[in-house]
Specification:
globular, 32% strand, seven-stranded mixed sheet, 7 helices, alpha+beta
Length: 317
């Protein structure tokens, strides 16, 4: 008997409840070929959670048995069609749980992950897609960044409509180098990410990731100048007004004395022919930040509803 299954089930059904996320939206005068909800979530790898030096997080809430059900709860509540995860380990548990929810998966593990120092498997990025709405149209490709495979491109297409037509879309997920002093390295990594995009420029593309940097950094401008748009751009002002502070995706205290780290470093970028119609505000967080008893990561999931416009002509992967 696998005792861990019962531990996870008990934790899931007796988990603390979180408030529903608020969304802001806009009207678009376009005839969409498809509409998809996209979730980007750094789930805080097991092994890294315990060594994260979080100032106010009790060790009990950092245990995987506590956090995994809460991560699933957040994903369930957001009801994404595409779910991209960073710092994802415990691959078999994710595959089993997400398959039960109707998702297929593509994983891309880091070659050298600090999580292994804690005796846990290497973390990486993962792309989950809802099989009732999407299917792979070709094999995925994994790109190494500085000899570490932390970028994955998944060619998808929507399920055929009544006329038998499908809409192609490439989904890409990444996790760039952390810490402020590595801004130029993130720019280099973004340059590598964008290589090969021209090959599939006619295919709408959704690029998700924990970019570990903010909007005034070179990596961000590099991606925007390549023709992508930030899915949250139309909504930042409204979200800031609701929050009464700038939009964030990570809000935590580290060290002793506690040092606040509050920033927006997770993004969903959209190529031409993709338009955002709504985006989620971050969850309510107490004064002691994340992770906490009701939210299992030090990052909040970001969420955008995206419409894909009709693209004429036949498109190859």
């Amino acid at each position: 008997v696998n005792i861990s299954i019962f531990v996870h089930l008990a934790a899931y059904y007796f988990r603390p409840e979180m408030a529903a996320r608020a969304f802001v939206s806009r009207a678009l005068d376009v005839a969409p070929a498809a509409r998809l909800r996209v979730v980007m979530f750094n789930v805080l790898a097991d092994g890294l959670a315990q060594s994260g030096d979080f100032s106010f997080a009790d060790p009990a809430i950092l245990a995987w048995q506590h956090r995994f059900p809460l991560l699933l709860q957040e994903i369930d509540s957001l009801a994404g069609d595409i779910v991209c995860l960073a710092e994802c380990n415990h691959r078999s548990e994710w595959e089993t749980a997400m398959a039960a929810r109707g998702f297929e998966a593509v994983f891309c593990a880091k070659r050298l992950s600090p999580a292994t120092h804690a005796g846990v498997e290497s973390d990486g990025v993962a792309v989950f897609f809802r099989s009732a709405r999407l299917r792979m149209r070709a094999g995925c490709s994994i790109v190494a960044i500085d000899n570490d495979p932390v970028f994955v491109r998944v060619p998808l297409e929507t399920a055929p409509d009544a006329a038998g037509a499908s809409v192609p879309v490439n989904v890409e997920a990444t996790h760039l180098k952390a810490k402020k002093e590595f801004a130029q390295k993130r720019k280099k990594q973004a340059t590598l990410l964008l290589e090969g995009t021209d090959r599939a420029a006619a295919v709408p593309c959704i690029l998700c990731g924990d970019f570990n940097g903010v909007r005034d950094e070179p990596f961000y401008h590099k991606i925007i100048n390549a023709g992508f748009t930030d899915a949250y751009s139309p909504f930042y002002a409204d979200i800031d007004a609701q929050l009464q502070r700038p939009m964030w995706s990570s809000y935590k205290f580290r060290g002793n004395p506690p040092e606040l780290q509050n920033y927006l470093g997770d993004f969903i970028f959209l190529s031409p022919h993709c338009q955002p119609v709504s985006a989620a505000c971050p969850p309510h967080v107490g004064e002691q930040g994340l992770p906490c008893a009701t939210y299992a990561s030090d990052h909040a999931a970001i969420v955008a509803d995206v419409v894909i416009e009709h693209v004429s002509g036949s498109i190859a992967p």
